[in-house]
Write a structure and sequence with these properties.
Layout (H helix, E strand, L loop, with lengths): L3 E5 L4 H13 L4 E6 L4 H11 L10 E5 L5 H10 L4 E4 L10 H17 L4 E6 L8 E3 L3
Parallel strand pairs: 1-2, 1-4, 2-3, 4-5
Antiparallel strand pairs: 5-6
Length: 139
Amino acid sequence: MVKNVMILGGYNWFGYEIINLLLNENSFCNFIIVDTFQNQLWKDPVKHKFEKYRYLFDENIFLYSVDIKDKYKLENIYKTHTITHIINNIKYNLNDLYMMEKIEGFNNIQKLNIKYNISSFICLYRNITHNSFALNHYT
């Protein structure tokens, strides 16, 4: 069975480490990274790491600059790729000024996961900083 993983908020050090690990395990066929590419200064340090896999871009690694609040663009990604697993790495921080806007996007993800029968969904969230995260196993 083909396994394709979508990593939401995945163009960062964590997204790279997940892809690196799963490629070495040969666990998944395709990696779909959805990120807004905001805060480019934070993205620059990881850019050279992703260059290691440049040869896989548009064949096994797909990059999308999409905000999760845009349900139509997000759904188009679900339609384009047969996604089986999703890792939500979008910062969920109660102190975030834009948290209420992100909740709309999280609702879009939940509805699309149900509509497209996603078999596995992992949501990572940070309580305060980028230095710690916790796993949320709620369906």
